[in-house]
Design a protein that fits this description.
98 residues; alpha+beta; Alpha-Beta Plaits; four-stranded antiparallel β-sheet
Length: 98
């Protein structure tokens, strides 16, 4: 299993749209589901900072994640640009293997 973690600080007033877009049934998860090696997405909200979230995306392997990113680069970039208006900041926290 391979996991990617991202942290987002969401603009005030964008929380609901962010949760719908980045949640387990959101646009990102739907894009990832185009690859059978994608596992799931979890969305967590920081209990101490109302507009801070972490996403956890799981894949069968690091290679699967990387191949998906290469194959879907245009769609990924388009969705990333569309979602940028929701964020104050975005930070890649890391990648982990089991």
């Amino acid at each position: 299993m391979f996991v990617t973690l991202w942290e987002f600080e969401v603009k005030s007033g964008s929380e609901e749209l962010f949760e719908r877009t980045y949640g387990p049934d959101g646009e990102w998860a739907r894009l990832f589901r185009g690859d059978a090696r994608y596992g799931a997405t979890r969305l967590l909200r920081d209990v101490g900072a109302v507009r801070v979230y972490v996403t956890i995306d799981t894949w069968k392997s690091r290679a699967a994640s990387e191949e998906f990113r290469e194959k879907s680069a245009a769609e990924y970039a388009e969705l990333d640009e569309k979602c940028a208006v929701l964020m104050e900041s975005e930070r890649h926290l890391g990648e982990y293997e089991k």
